[in-house]
Design brief:
The protein is mainly beta. The protein is built from 2 helices and 21 strands.
Length: about 300
């Protein structure tokens, strides 16, 4: 009998809520990229407050805040100001905000791929990159694939044949591309696609950057059905060719069931940008209804059975 993975919600969810006395994050906090640094889980989370992109009634401006948890569940530190804020001045590719970061550590550097928002283009969504080594100072590197409007992207936390590997989404499918310098890209192709009748039939993309195991790259991904309900899934990618799917569980591992997942800024959303392995469990951090941040987990032992270890 095959192992079916289901995430177990933390009983203290949600772990991060809007901060009512802070104008830049008093509306929504969600969709955190995560990494373990100095033994603690660092969360770069998407935050929205009072400022609107184009005046009253328009979508809120997004920023990235920083929270830190030693045990992966309880927040020990939450920064008073954004760590990555919008760029002021003349209209630019980040004028409306930055959101949905995904963090991949390569060498001693954390690479943060995020969505930059502006008025330019049909939707105004472009991929951008920032780096840090200590989560105290951050360096913007500019746009990735600046000719394509897209989002939902992150780097493999290891080079393959000396090249960076980028997972991204050109609607509605998940793509993979390669680059030696993070500027020129090649080998672009779909590696996961939607299927009519599946829980990911409308659109899909990666969730957390893949986590390396002895059997392959463990991928937590997301999908959306015809009723715009989000879900999370799990798959295993080949260690040497991550465009190859070794195993994919057809049933979702998490769907909106709790009130905080079904009702919020956008209804029926569970969406992850980051997961870590900590204390014998994989912890998956996910935004709920675009309003709050939660965490759910599964034991490493159970996942090992799923992947055949």
């Amino acid at each position: 009998m095959s192992v079916q993975i289901r995430l177990e919600r933390y009983e203290g969810n949600p772990i991060l809520k809007p901060k009512k006395d802070s104008a830049w994050e008093n509306l929504n906090v969600s969709n955190a990229g995560v990494a373990i640094h100095d033994g603690a889980v660092h969360l770069l989370y998407r935050a929205e407050g009072e400022e609107r992109r184009l005046g009253p009634g328009s979508w809120p401006v997004t920023r990235l805040g920083l929270a830190i948890s030693r045990d992966g569940f309880n927040i020990d530190y939450r920064g008073p100001d954004p760590v990555l804020d919008v760029i002021r001045g003349e209209p630019n590719y980040e004028e409306f905000g930055i959101e949905d970061p995904r963090i991949s550590k390569i060498g001693d550097t954390y690479y943060i791929v995020y969505t930059a928002l502006s008025r330019f283009g049909a939707w105004g969504d472009k991929l951008a990159l920032a780096t840090t080594r200590d989560f105290k100072t951050f360096e913007r590197k500019g746009l990735l694939m600046e000719d394509i409007e897209q989002r939902t992207s992150g780097l493999l936390p290891e080079k393959i044949n000396g090249e960076y590997v980028l997972f991204h989404r050109i609607m509605p499918n998940a793509w993979i591309s390669y680059s030696k310098d993070l500027k020129e890209w090649h080998g672009s192709r779909v590696f996961m696609r939607t299927h009519i009748g599946a829980w990911y039939e409308k659109k899909m993309g990666i969730g957390a950057p893949p986590i390396k195991t002895a059997k392959g790259w463990l991928l937590f991904y997301h999908g959306v059905d015809r009723n715009n309900r989000y879900g999370l899934g799990i798959a295993l990618l080949d260690l040497h060719d991550p465009s190859k799917i070794i195993k994919n569980q057809e049933e979702p591992i998490l769907v909106p069931e709790e009130d905080y997942e079904k009702e919020g800024f956008i209804s029926n959303v569970v969406y992850t940008c980051g997961a870590v392995e900590k204390d014998g469990r994989y912890l998956v951090y996910y935004g709920c209804a675009d309003r709050v941040l939660a965490v759910a987990g599964v034991s490493v032992e159970e996942v090992n059975r799923f992947i055949g270890l």
